[in-house]
Each structure stands twice: as structure tokens, then as C-alpha cells.
Amino acid sequence: MQLVQGFRDIFKQVKYDxxxxxxxxxxxxxxxxxxxxxxxxxxxxxxxxxxxxxxNSTRLxxxxxxxxxxxxxxxxxxxxEILSSGLxxxxxxxxxxxxxxxxxxxSSACHATARRHGRSTYMNPDEFAKIYLxxxxxxxxxxxxxxEPLYMPVSPTLTRVHDWDEMEFVxxxxxxxxxxxxxxxxxxxxxxxxxxxxxxxxxxxxRNIPMICANPDVFAPNGINEDGTVKLLICPGxxxxxxxxxxxxxxxxxxxxxxxxxxxxxxxxKYSIKEGFNEASSKVVCVGDNVATDVKGAxxxxxxxxxxxGGVHWEELKDAKNDDELKERVRELCxxxxxxxxxxxxxxxxx
Length: 351
Description:
By secondary structure, this protein is of the alpha/beta class. Helices cover 37% and strands 20% of the residues. Helix 3 links the parallel strand 3 (50-55) and strand 4 (81-84). The mean pLDDT is 95.
């Protein structure tokens, strides 16, 4: 675990084919871009580095492009492509629909990680469809503006319904409340969120209804509180954890789960022939701020990872007296979340 100030310190030691960079907590805090983040991306692009943004957002690239450009001034010129957990969710829903229509999935794009009673198993879309689907009806616990692009391409094979007695699964998207148009809920209040979602979870558990969680993040930084602390936005993974704790089954895509890293390496990473080798390979470094998702996921996938200190864990790290204490606090976070240590520590994303 090496403390560095920017990519320049790393590139003196090792060259990477692809940089897979998180968005929330690394490029911006949900309100404004972090200092140096745009300059770091610009420098990477100028040096012809291959930059993939690796996000747990439920949104697809077009909406993420628009949001980052309009709100943060981070345009498509700063990176090559975005790979989001929302995209993998879309692929999985497409394969589920194919199974309902034809009785098989010719070539599945990805698997999901299904969790129940603290245990994780791989679940392919045809397996999910065999177990749970007859009509393809589901309930959307999310924002239609953000999640419609995930399921509309396979409508009416998969059909959104509002009746909890008809649903066969729940698509868990952005946290706006169970019925956001009628009763929006404060996404920063754990008390309000738990009260709003509990009746849905109770109904799901009673009927053995699975949840497909399009964003496994539990919290994400979103600006600064009046007292100067980092303001944390509640994310879909929070509801997923609630349902898991009740004994329900939740399917996840995105970090820290393997499917997004497998898809990255197979379809998005850049490959090159290294000195002394005859076949091309890809050396990837991931960048993220969250130990539970970014660090754990990358290290379990066998990839190097840069942990950005100024994101979701800033309150736990900011008053460390020296580098040794800082590293020990990171090690404690890793122990807490069952993660290996990051390869590098970087205060903020910087070249």
C-alpha cells in the first residue's frame, strides 16, 4: 500500500493499459467536481491513456454523459467510455426476456451475484427466469426517467406493474421512494427511507419475491453538511441490504461483484503485448473511493487499485496525524469490509 500524490508517481514505476475510474467520490461529490479531477482526466487523455469510467450508477452512458457535462463540465472528451451497473442490468433483463420468449438464452452477456442469508452465488438469467418468471411482471422501485431505458427495450415481455400481488420481481433503482411521483422521500434520511420501503419488503418476503438491485452502493458522497462533514446519499444497495437482513434474495450487478470486472476485461479493457511475452494481455488499474465496493471488487478481481481518500471515507481518515496512522485506518476499513488492501492511496484524483 503506497501513498502517492498523483498518477505521475505511479507511472514512474508501472504502465497500465487501462484506467478504470469511478465517478461518484472520485470525479465529483454529487454537487461539484473535485479539485484537479478534470485536469487529471485531461492529462491522461493527452498522454493517450485508455480511460473507462466504471460506475455503479443505474443510468446508461447517454444520461451519464449528459449529467457530467451539464453539471460538472466533464465532457466525453475526458474519457473513452462508461461501463455502469445499469448497463449490465439492462443486459440481464434482455436475456431474461429472451428466455421467456424462446425458452433459452443463446449467449448471456453477464451473470448476477445473488445474495441470501449472507451467502453469494452466481445466477445466470435463464436460471432466474426458470425459478421466478411466468408472466414477466415486475415492480419498479425507482425513478422511471432513469430506469426506463433498462427495461423498455424488452417490453411487453417484461411488464412494469403497480400491483404488488402481480409482481414476480422488483427492479430496485434510484432511491426516491417506493412511489416517488406520489410520495417522494428524503434520500438522506435513513429513518424515512426505512419506513417508506418496509411495507414493500414485507410483501416481497411473504411472497418470496426477489429483488434485482441495479446499484449496489449503500451510500455515496453528495456535497457537504452545514457542519463541514461529508453529506451521504442513500443508494439502492441500502435497500438491498435491508431485504437481505430479512432473509430475502437480492441480485446485484456492479462493484464489488465479479460480473462488472469480467465484462470490463472481456469487452472494454485495452490489450498490449508486454516485453518478454508473445500474447497480448491487459494490465488494468482501478480507481475508487469506497473500500466496500471499489477496493474490495478490484482486489478480488486480481486488479491493482488506487483508493481516493477524499470521498466516502473522508470523515474517517481526515484527521490522521501522519502517513502511518492514515495507512492503519485504511487497513482497519479493509478489515471491516472484508477487503484486501489497495495498491495505492491518493488524496484526490490528480495527475
